[in-house]
Amino acid sequence: MGKPETAQCLICGQTKSTRNGTIGEVVRPSLSEFIHKKAPQWDGKSFICFDDLGKFRRDYVKEVLQEEIGELSALDNEVVESLQQHEILSSDISKQFEKKLTFGERLSDTIAAFGGSWTFIIVFSLILLIWIGVNSFILANQAFDPYPYILMNLVLSALAALQAPVIMMSQNRSEARDRLRGENDYKINLKAELEIRHLHEKIDHLLRKQYNRLFEIQQIQIELLEELGQKRRGAQSVPTL
Known about the structure:
Elements: E1 6-8, E2 15-17, E3 21-23, H1 29-38, E4 47-49, H2 50-69, H3 74-85, H4 93-99, H5 103-115, H6 118-138, H7 150-237
Antiparallel strand pairs: 1-2, 3-4
């Protein structure tokens, strides 16, 4: 196995493997112009390492975003930094959010989930029917809560007073989870848009470069054909003895 080729980065001056960098001809023109503006020694053709290219790319994207949307938010800056580090922004927000919940918050979520289910409605309805049946028919004159069931109304009022804030706490955490999910979706969409724009510019640059090379090759072929034609005409014009 041969030794990997190395090259000197024109920006930082360090010698690195060619796998850890690229030549300037591959860099899209807009980014190459930005690099030349920040580093005048850049000629657009030399070798540049991925570390320096990532830094220039981050600064370039940051400048473009500032021109388009004004002052960058914390989310925008996080996306810009991820472009340099080639990080993946997508993550499971629900799992991360659940890890931070306390025991009381988990308990309130469980109570809210049970209170909004058919199981709770059926069980609670059966308890009310049993309560009414016992006090109206079974115990009759010795009922502990005779009609109009004042004790039952007190229990229902207390249950409703306790259940309402528990459900509100659960809804607040659900809104916080949705907000984090929305922020994560925004970062992913912004990074995807920037990456797609970068790919479009790079492909256009490579296509223009390829067309120029094909045109040069075609010109060389035409010149060769003209030279061959001139030689043939010269050979035919020589008189035979």
